[in-house]
Automatic annotation (TrEMBL):
Region (Disordered): 616-650
Keyword vocabulary terms for this entry: Cell membrane, Glycoprotein, Membrane, Peptide transport, Protein transport, Symport, Transmembrane, Transmembrane helix, Transport
Domain of life of the source: Eukaryota
Signal peptide: none
Lineage of the organism: Eukaryota, Metazoa, Chordata, Craniata, Vertebrata
Stored InterPro entries: MFS_trans_sf (IPR036259), POT_fam (IPR000109), PTR2_symporter_CS (IPR018456)
Organism of provenance: Cyprinus carpio
Function: Electrogenic proton-coupled amino-acid transporter that transports oligopeptides of 2 to 4 amino acids with a preference for dipeptides. Transports neutral and monovalently charged peptides with a proton to peptide stoichiometry of 1:1 or 2:1. Primarily responsible for the absorption of dietary di- and tripeptides from the small intestinal lumen. Mediates transepithelial transport of muramyl and N-formylated bacterial dipeptides contributing to recognition of pathogenic bacteria by the mucosal immune system.
Spans through the membrane: 25-43, 55-75, 81-103, 115-136, 156-182, 194-216, 276-294, 349-369, 549-569, 581-605
Protein name (database record): Solute carrier family 15 member 1
Topology within the bilayer: Multi-pass membrane protein
Length: 650
């Protein structure tokens, strides 16, 4: 089939690339604010929010199996992408609706009255999104590869690099924009952080992605599905195992491959294709460990303080580095290595990528050791912490049973640690005034009471204290990661808030954010070498009718990695964070050594050549030649028709 080309590339590719950019913007934009939505809208704790988040990501990388089966067995890649994109868009819209607090806010206090409704709707939305994004994931890359002819192998390799660039360009823009949208205030009755806008824009982008993909319909090369291929594969493998078990006696001659025990019942071409897929899937066994590390990338919150960004924008560093490193690797590093005569094969690149990721976690461990030096001594799991505040006008001597004496000056604070259960202390206001006080953005405080612990952004913040007609204003500059207690005396209005005492419970972070740059550079370099190469390798080593299946197998390694993260989170962590980083780095080094040994014994294949050879052995070559002859005749007929049209115009 002839396809229209531009600069040596099929024009249909541009629709696929734009589609991928919009879809990735939609997915990563939603994901950028998802944990914050769990924590601050649904009011879940950190553990539950993190667990649901990783479970969602794991589901997104498990559903590609379903999408691959549908594409290669029944609908074909084109229809599968369209139908599951519709499911995807419905999921995004459902998710956006679940974030509208006014739907159940009957008393108009800014808080939903029926959290069950919002949770149910958001979970339904996430399930639909996981089905949609996971289902189309293996199909889009493989469908893009199908657009290229045999003579365009160089353009095909470049396509996968550009494809990965589009993924990260969409990720970069979405993780910059959606947090800004979230930080806006919106609402029908009460103004709250605008989660509907933050989730609504990704929903719109998903609809645009679907429209763009459909717009290129007339230009695509569409391969028909070849029946229920996955069911045939499973039955063939099952028969081979059963037949081998039946003939396990030494009296039966051995066969070259255990799949050859299916020769009695199944076609040799199918058996050859299954052998190709199994060889690659066997290589995938150690790969989830890379994703286990990658999905635990250390947060770089220090950048937020320096650049004035939002915490959910910190994920942009990774795509920025990818957009920089992919063209450098593709156009400079890899060609230079090739010119030096070194055989830097795809599997070797993936091994080096894993080692770079391991080095990133070693770098993170070194940074964590420096951070730990600046932290205060927190209570252990068998201790609790008591804070004693003296709002009296004189020094007090406090005795804590059985015989602990504390001498606390006027408007001073003393911490006392004792064996009990874990407790943490954060910033708060203590009201030493004789009446109720109203403080900006806080509830009213009764006399001799304290506010709830509150979080504020880094930098200078202004507070206004009011009681009736009396008021005063004071300002404080907050360091990132610090914790403060403010003691309000009875004379607060007579001296215009000057007498408010500030107690620094925890010092601001002093470790420079630049120390975290190397770990992000290392893990992104590892990702480029590992992930982009793995995408290309999975496509090139797959038979024509199982390319989506093998893409799904590749994506499943990511799902298993996220499941490992969940298991580790449930089992508990090491007492020291840096020790956990070193443990994961050591595990990945061990895995990379195992993978390199497996890669050494792997033989690269040309699936099309093997399939042609099997067909020739089965006497199917004339049929193929007849097919090619028919295609040439159709091509000649098209050219004649074009000439006839031109003559008519003349």
């Amino acid at each position: 089939m002839l396809t229209a080309e531009c600069c040596g590339y099929p024009i249909s590719i541009f629709f696929i690339v734009v589609n991928e950019f919009c879809e990735r913007f939609s997915y990563y934009g939603m994901r950028a604010v998802l944990v914050l939505y769990f924590r601050y809208f649904l009011l879940w704790d950190d553990d539950l929010a993190t667990s649901i988040y990783h479970a969602f990501v794991a589901l997104c990388y498990l559903t590609p199996i379903l999408g691959a089966i549908i594409a290669d067995s029944w609908l074909g890649k084109f229809k599968t992408i369209i139908y599951l994109s519709i499911v995807y868009a419905i999921g995004q819209v459902t998710m956006a609706i679940s974030t509208i607090h006014d739907i159940t806010d009957a008393n108009r206090d800014g808080t939903p009255d029926n959290f069950t409704f919002h949770i149910a709707l958001s979970m339904l939305g996430l399930i639909l999104i996981a089905l949609g994004t996971g289902g189309i994931k293996p199909c889009v890359a493989a469908f893009g590869g199908d657009q290229f002819q045999e003579h365009q192998s160089r353009q095909l390799n470049t396509f996968f690099s550009v494809f990965y660039l589009c993924i990260n360009a969409g990720s970069l823009l979405s993780t910059l924009i959606t947090p800004v949208l979230r930080a806006q205030e919106c609402g029908i009755h009460t103004q709250q952080q605008c989660y509907p806008l933050a989730f609504g824009v990704p929903a719109v982008l998903m609809v645009i992605s679907l429209v763009v993909f459909i717009a290129g319909s007339g230009m695509y090369v569409k391969t028909d599905p070849e029946g229920n291929i996955m069911w045939s594969v499973c039955k063939c493998i099952g028969f081979a195992i059963k037949n081998r078990f039946r003939h396990r006696s030494s009296s039966y001659p051995k066969r070259e491959h255990w799949m050859d025990w299916a020769n009695e019942k199944y076609d040799k071409l199918l058996i050859a294709q299954i052998k190709m897929v199994l060889k690659v899937l066997f290589l995938y066994i150690p790969l989830p460990m890379f994703w286990t590390l990658f999905d635990q990338k250390v947060s770089i919150c220090h950048f937020s303080g320096l650049l004035g960004g939002l915490p959910d924008q910190m994920q942009t560093v990774n795509p920025i580095l990818i957009l920089t490193l992919v063209p450098i690797m593709d156009r400079l590093i890899f060609p230079l290595i090739q010119k030096c005569g070194l055989n830097f094969s795809p599997l070797k690149r993936m091994t080096v990528g894993m080692l770079f990721a391991a080095m990133a976690f070693v770098s993170a461990a070194l940074v964590q050791i420096e951070i730990d030096k600046t932290l205060p001594n927190f209570p252990s799991s068998s201790e609790s912490q008591l804070k004693v505040v003296n709002t009296y006008s004189r020094t007090l001597n406090v005795t804590i049973s059985p015989n602990e004496h504390l001498l606390i000056e006027s408007f001073g604070v003393q911490l006392h640690t004792s064996k009990h259960t874990y407790s943490t202390i954060s910033r708060m206001f203590v009201n030493g005034y004789t009446a109720d006080l109203n403080i900006t953005n806080l509830d009213s405080i009764e006399p001799s009471a304290t506010t709830n612990y509150t979080l504020v952004n880094q930098g200078k913040r202004d507070f206004v204290l009011r009681h009736g007609e009396q008021w005063c204003e004071f300002s404080r500059k907050f360091g990132f990661g610090a914790s403060y207690t403010f003691l309000i005396p009875s004379t607060v209005f007579s001296d215009d808030c000057e007498s408010i005492t500030e107690v620094e419970d925890m010092k601001p972070n002093s470790v420079h954010m630049a120390l975290q740059i190397p770990q992000y550079f290392l893990i992104t370099t590892g990702e480029v070498m590992f992930s982009v190469t793995g995408l290309q390798f999975s496509y090139s080593q797959a038979p024509k009718n199982m390319k989506s299946v093998l893409q799904a197998g590749w994506l499943c390694t990511n799902a298993v990695g996220n499941i490992i993260v969940l298991i580790v989170a449930e089992l508990g962590k090491l007492p020291k964070q840096w020790a956990e980083y070193l443990l994961f780095a050591s595990l990945l080094v061990a895995v990379s050594i195992i993978f390199s040994i497996m890669a050494y014994f792997y033989t690269y294949i040309d699936p099309a050549e093997i399939e042609a050879q099997v067909r020739k052995e089965q006497g199917l070559e004339p049929e193929e030649m007849e097919k090619e002859t028919l295609e040439m005749e159709e091509k000649d007929e098209d050219q004649k028709n074009e000439q006839g049209v031109k003559q008519t115009k003349i």
